[in-house]
Amino acid sequence: MLGLMQSQPLMISAVLKHAARHHGAAEIVSKNVEGDIDRYTWADAERRSRRLVRALQALGVEAGDRVGTLAMNGYRHLEIYYAAPGLGAICHTVNPRLHPDDIGYIVNHAGDKVLFAETSFNAVVTAIAPAIAGTVKTVVMMTSPALMPALDLPAGMRLVCYDDLIAGADEDYVWPEFDENTASALCYTSGTTGRPKGVLYSHRSTILHAYGVSVADALALRAVDRVLPVVPMFHVNAWGIPYAAAMTGTSLIMPGRHLDGPSMHKLLNDERVTMTAGVPTVWMGLLQHLRATPGAKLDTVQRIMTGGSACPPLLIEAFGREYGVRMEHGWGMTEISPVGTYNRPKPAHAGLDEAGLEHLTLKQGRVLPGIDMKIVNDAGEELPWDGVAFGDLKVRGSWVASAYYGDAPGSALDADGWFATGDVATIDPNGMMEITDRSKDVIKSGGEWISSITLENIAVSHPDIAEAAVIAARHAKWDERPLLIVVPVKGAMVTPESVLAIYEGKIAKWWLPDRVLVVDELPHTATGKLQKNTLRARYQNLLLEQPS
Ligand code: AMP
To answer: Is 444 one of the annotated active-site residues of the chain?
Structure first.
């Protein structure tokens, strides 16, 4: 027997309509890439998104077409987030920090018909234009007529001004309803190995993810909140915040391109931000600025969500103790829309002492309702949730990818429908998951596994170390041994002995890195993650070449 409830397809436009109707006055503040600040409301965003649909249609965009963007977080980008799927097309966010060859490859692979770009990416657009001329017919610069650049584009590729498009478009569009499984957005993975691969979200997966991240034990967004997503809209859907904020009527503060400590501090205080979200590197920059500025405070920020890579304990401790701000750890990936877990305590954690609480906050958290997870060994057998055994982390759920763009549905899953994340993790009896490594980064010493993330976290608790990476170096006897590479804090001098001393009593003796290298900087991917493959290529034979 079927239930007797109304059935409405889960449409992305529905949350925008909700925001406009019920939270019409909630603010959207954008620090534009050109430096000025624009303010409007969710009601304005909905009205202008309807205009943008009409403009896209006038450019020849139809249902199923891909609309590329090269942009930071701002209100025009938000309008594309809603207008493209609102007409059945696909908002394809492209990471502008990638190498132009990769950007060209991604735009061509997606077959974008139109490319929207901010003026800060003029050089990228010019560089890739000849390579993408076969698919992109129009480039729309996301700016006002006064700031329109004169770009040299190949014959047949039009250059248009965003604000002109909106000004010339009608507002008469009525958001349609269609199959909730229709594709809505496309985002390519960082591609640290091989070519980037596209993850194609649907209206249904996006709305379910937005509900999932909004719960009180996750982002807990409220109408009274003012949220600043530092996490970029060009990658991993800004952790779903642009959709979840509309759903919850939260005001959005968009930071544009200046994400350094002083700029963030000013924007967070000026705009009375209550919650913000981004990768640990940004919070490290903010912390350094706050510490270096006598009397500096965060006036209104209550919570910082961190994710994207492991959060050094120092950050959680420092923001909590020195600035009264709670750091909350989340985990996810492009293929999971992206949020899979969030770290909030359970009743069982009530009696934890300080050390226990500290360790708890480092974990990546428990699954959101809608996701399931497990850890398995090399034979695919499920491992116990004892907080000790670590294995390959697999997930499944309504906002987990089933295949990459262009591949057959289900082709990214195992025979039982699970998606292998490529992360290695433990899960404790309370269901708290802790990432110990990417599977390709784990160090296999004499048949036993050593967690590079654990060693890195301890290294950065050294007051003179700014950043650390641990990689597997080949070893004649043990196959692999940990090699620690550190970047000292500006002006500090560190010796290998002083670095190794910090591990005393914190790890099993055989986990101690065999060698410490002190370098000026570490390589990062375009999304700010440590580029360990580059480090491995450079140093993996060091212990064979120079045994100690
Ligand atoms: P991306 O698809 O670019 O977001 O990368 C996803 C990967 O980032 C995950 O598979 C993890 O390896 C890593 N990651 C994301 N969040 C965390 C976190 N909180 N702690 C450790 N690693 C993380």
So the answer is: yes
Tokens 């006897």 -> residue: 477
Is any atom of ligand 1 closer than 6 Å to the C-beta of 401?
no
In short, whether 462's Cβ falls inside 6 Å of ligand 1 is no
Q: Which is the closest atom of ligand 1 to the Cα of 330?
A: 19
How many angstroms is it from 473 CA to the middle of ligand 1? 23
- DSSP letter for each residue of 126-192: HHHHHHHTTT--EEEESS-GGG-------TT-EEEEHHHHHHTS-S--------TTSEEEEEE---S
Among 490, 491, 482, 489, smallest CA distance to 453 is for: 482
Q: Is 452 in the pocket of ligand 1 (CB under 6 A)?
A: no
Measured from the Cα of 364, ligand 1's closest atom is 19
Give me the residues paired with residue 527 across strands: none
Does 424 contact ligand 1 (Cβ within 6 A)?
A: no
First to last CA, the chain: 72
Determine if ligand 1 sits within 6 Å of the CB of residue 423.
yes
Q: Which of 119, 449, 529, 534 is catalytic?
A: 449
Tell me how far the alpha carbon of residue 147 lies from the centroid of ligand 1, in angstroms: 37
- 306 Cα: distance to centroid of ligand 1 (angstroms): 11
For 314-384, strand residue ranges (E) read 326-332, 339-342, 366-367, 371-376
Whole-number Å distance, alpha carbon 524 to ligand 1 midpoint, is 14
This prediction has a pTM of 0.91
Query: Looking at ligand 1, which atom is closest to the CA of residue 335?
Result: 2
Domains with residue ranges and CATH for the chain: 42-207 (3.40.50.12780), 443-545 (3.30.300.30)
User: Comparing C-alpha atoms, which of 153, 160, 137, 186 is closest to residue 76?
Assistant: 160
113 an active-site residue?
A: no
Q: pLDDT tens per residue, the chain (548 residues)?
A: 999 999 999 999 999 999 999 999 999 999 998 889 999 999 999 999 999 999 999 999 999 999 999 999 999 999 999 999 999 999 999 999 888 988 999 999 999 999 999 999 999 999 999 999 999 999 999 999 999 999 999 999 999 999 999 999 999 999 999 999 999 999 998 655 578 899 999 999 999 999 999 999 999 999 999 999 999 999 999 999 999 999 999 999 999 999 999 999 999 999 999 999 999 889 989 999 999 999 999 999 999 999 998 888 889 999 999 999 999 999 999 999 999 999 999 999 999 998 888 889 999 999 999 999 999 998 999 999 999 999 999 999 999 999 999 999 999 999 999 999 999 999 999 999 999 988 888 898 887 888 898 899 899 989 999 999 999 999 988 889 999 999 999 889 899 999 999 999 888 888 999 999 999 999 988 777 888 989 999 999 999 987 76
If 0-12 CB within 10 Å is exposed, 13-18 middle and 19+ buried, where does residue 476 land? exposed
The reply to whether ligand 1 has any atom less than 6 angstroms from the CB of 236 is yes
Question: Which stretch of DSSP H or E encloses residue 112?
Answer: strand 112-117
Distance 476 CA to ligand 1 centre (A): 32
**Alpha carbons 515 and 444: distance in angstroms, whole number:** 16
Pocket lining: 422 vs ligand 1, CB cutoff 6 Å: yes
**Is 449 designated active site?**
yes
